[in-house]
Structure prediction request, 116 residues.
Amino acid sequence: MPDSGKNSAEPKKDAIGAIIDSIADLLQTATDWVRQEAESVIREKIVLPIQRLGLTIVSASAAGCLAVVGLIFIAVALFLLLAQWLTYPGALLAIGGVYLLGAVVFIVIKVRMMQK
Prediction:
């Protein structure tokens, strides 16, 4: 008879072990799902916008650099054209005068905005 008592206890231990294993599997599945969802949300809400921002900054920087180089070539061409008409000192004087006039306009606008 003592043998039959041990046999009935072993199935209970096996059933409890199976329940514990099932709960552990459920917790592992839930953990994996939460990790996957967190990764998806981070990728969608953080990584992709940062990638788009990086591409935008790089594109704007490249466009700005090309615009500056183009403006330099245009400025040199205008200087050479003015130099033919006004001589080099006259061209430098005209360009310097335009820059000073532009600076005065910006200063006047800034002073008026500060007074408001």
